[in-house]
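Structure first, sequence second, as always.
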């Protein structure tokens, strides 16, 4: 068993950040009780570079390193892939630019990894608004969704193909394992990819404490229907990528048995097979319900419904 002093690399990707939010995040990293950590920072915004002189005002106790710029924007998934490749730590933690961490987040996560002998640990999270006010004390305990309520050592891979079982900022993982997952898939997010890989390569832990605060505001990069205007958009941006992800994962990790079940559901979605969508609905109930309804509706009406749902989230 490793001693609780292995180096942790906190990987922070920034893109034209809100300075107020970034300051809060950096201060929460600087106040971590875990001593042996370094913050790796990469700026992916080519047209409007961040003023790096601000870093010394916000980071006073921890080490940090700024990675060299790349010639063009690579997007958030490739940005985190770049950070992972440049990391050297025994442990790795993903970090977003506008959240806040509990001071003992790294300490508790590393201890959990060592106690359980797992490759990756995810924690519960709070939700805060743009002003930092807590609007949800515990996502886990306010949800009945499988992807929010799983436990340590469970096989969650088949569910995670369709809905990420933890957001990146709640994850800490074994460093050598994380580097082995590169290159990341182009068909999904970095967080969903490493969760899937950890599930296939070993075991995962869940730490039932809200050790991160997810800031929900208008510019978060999220939303199932973001960028979707029609049935065709939905199929091209949501259904086909899931199918391609599973096929790619099967090639990388052929021994993972959950892939076959996931493929059946993904193919039912691609073929609009209502009977099979209903049969495998337990894998992603919200997705299955939405797509069963979508199969019966003309595209014109579906476009109206999509706009209504998007307005509710804005």
């Amino acid at each position: 068993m490793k001693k609780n002093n292995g180096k942790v690399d906190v990987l922070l990707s920034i893109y034209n950040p809100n300075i107020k939010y970034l300051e809060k995040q950096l201060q929460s990293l600087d106040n971590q009780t875990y001593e042996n950590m370094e913050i790796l920072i990469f700026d992916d915004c080519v047209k409007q570079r961040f003023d790096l002189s601000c870093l010394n005002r916000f980071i006073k106790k921890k080490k940090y390193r700024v990675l060299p710029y790349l010639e063009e924007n690579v997007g958030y998934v490739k940005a985190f892939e770049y950070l992972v490749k440049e990391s050297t730590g025994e442990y790795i933690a993903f970090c977003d630019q506008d959240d806040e961490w509990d001071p003992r987040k790294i300490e508790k996560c590393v201890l959990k990894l060592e106690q359980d002998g797992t490759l990756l640990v995810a924690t519960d999270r709070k939700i805060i608004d743009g002003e930092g006010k807590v609007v949800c004390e515990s996502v886990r305990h306010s949800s009945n969704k499988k992807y929010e309520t799983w436990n340590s050592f469970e096989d969650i891979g088949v569910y995670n193909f369709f809905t990420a079982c933890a957001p990146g900022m709640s994850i800490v993982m074994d460093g050598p394992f994380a580097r082995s997952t590169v290159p990341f898939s182009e068909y999904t997010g970095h967080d969903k990819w490493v969760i899937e890989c950890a599930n296939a390569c070993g075991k995962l832990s869940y730490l039932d404490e809200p050790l991160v605060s997810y800031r929900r505001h208008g510019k978060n990069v999220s939303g199932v229907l973001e960028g979707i205007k029609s049935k065709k958009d939905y199929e091209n941006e949501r259904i086909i990528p899931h199918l391609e992800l599973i096929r790619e994962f099967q090639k990388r990790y052929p021994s993972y048995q959950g892939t076959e079940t996931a493929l059946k559901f993904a193919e039912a979605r691609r073929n609009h097979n209502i009977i099979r969508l209903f049969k495998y609905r337990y894998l992603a109930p919200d997705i299955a319900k939405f797509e069963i309804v979508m199969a019966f509706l003309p595209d014109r009406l579906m476009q109206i419904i999509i706009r209504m749902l998007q307005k509710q989230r804005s």
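Margin note: The chain is about 40% helix and 15% strand.
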